[in-house]
Amino acid sequence: MNIGKYQEDFPSLRFSAPSEKVLEITLEAAEKLNAADADMHRDLAYVWRDIDMDDSVNAVLVKGAGKGFSAGGDFDLIDSMIEDDDTLARVWKEARDLVYNLINCSKPVISAIHGPAVGAGLAVGLLADISIAAKNARILDGHVRLGVAAGDHAAIIWPLLCGMAKAKYYLLTNKPINGEEAERIGLVSLCVEDEKLYSTALETAIELSNGSPSAIRWTKYSLNNWLRMAGPNFDTSLALEFMGFRQADIREGLRSLKEKRSPKFSEKSSL
């Protein structure tokens, strides 16, 4: 396994091999709770293509450094998306590719979710084939709080995981979900004590890495046809999210987050 090549090609992420045939990816920007800046957003979109083609990798473990999994989108990146058409178009493509590349990656992916889990990081965490959350996990989609539609992964996976009623409740109200509740409603595969999160996730990754590659990969492929069938729903949600970056509410949502206050969104809508 060529860890150095991964590190060179995707420098915003940290790579290691905790066990033979297991590639570990760490989201590491501790000073901002691993929020995805432009570089991390790009790397999270395209690392899965390399992993898919890497015969030395049989399983992938994704975790966050420090106190959280990922705090969502970097404010500077959001500002650029609001102000610059080229940035908006590029990030739209990356957001689309992140979801489809992860779905189409043949290797099983295990996520270890602790603390805040929002935005592009959450997309990886919940689209993982097996998602393991600590009790202290704080899962939050966050889009409607920002003032845009829930687009980057929610429409394709949340209703399948926890049902339409729960998906609508949490996506529309923007209420956070802890690890135990996420497991109860089926949003994650498993919830464990905080101190057991990494060891449980690694044990799961090692178990999968030692299984029949063809049986595991073909099972993943067939199950993910449910997600592929939901592709048009995802494409629509992503387009509506990015259209929101040209509306007034995104500016107020971002300002209110920076100022740590409740937003005052516009009362009228063209919809």
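Second entry:
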Amino acid sequence: MSPHHEATPADPAPLYAIRLKGHLGCEWADWFDGLAVELTADGDTLLTGPVPDQAALHGLLKKVRDLGLPLLAVHCMAPNEKGVDGTHPQKETYP
């Protein structure tokens, strides 16, 4: 590290959306490290929120595997991505 290097604030954790086949109850949010749990009309569950790093993402995916629910999609959302209000993507984001 050079003496002229200035510390910068850490980048915010990227937002992820994880779509599962089947409905989970909102009480699962704590088990999924505080991700928002949204039940969709087509019978899927959408987990959304910040994930600090790849290790945390793999831990979440391991929990999905342990539940036995089919994993439909994992999407890393850009902060300015159309249809994202900061925490939840709109349904049109996922086929």
